[in-house]
Amino acid sequence: xxxxxxxxxxxxxxxxxxxxxxxxxxxxxxxxxxxxxxxxxxxxxxxxxxxxxxxxxxxxxxxxxxxxxxxxxxxxxxxxxxxxxxxxxxxxxxxxxxx
Length: 99
Description:
Elements: H1 7-11, H2 27-37, H3 42-49, H4 53-67, H5 72-82
Helix pairs in contact: 2-4, 2-5, 3-4, 4-5
C-alpha cells in the first residue's frame, strides 16, 4: 500500500450493511488480529502462538472472509469498527509472549 493512498480506498467495503450482525470470530482469530494490530508479522504471530505460518495465514483468510474484505488492514478496521478488538488492548496473549 502506498503511503499516499487515500484512507477511503483502504476502508472501501469495510462498512457493513445496516442491521447486519458483526462477524463471529474464534478466540484464536481474535488473538491473531490483536497481534496484527500490534504490528506483528505472520512469522512473529506463528512464534507467539506456537503454530506454523500457514496456520496463521489460514486464520487471516477466514477473518477476511468473515468480514468480507480483501486485506489485513481492512480486517483490522472492521474489527475495531465492530468492537471485535479495541485499540486499548494491551496484550492479546500467546504461548511465548510475556508483556
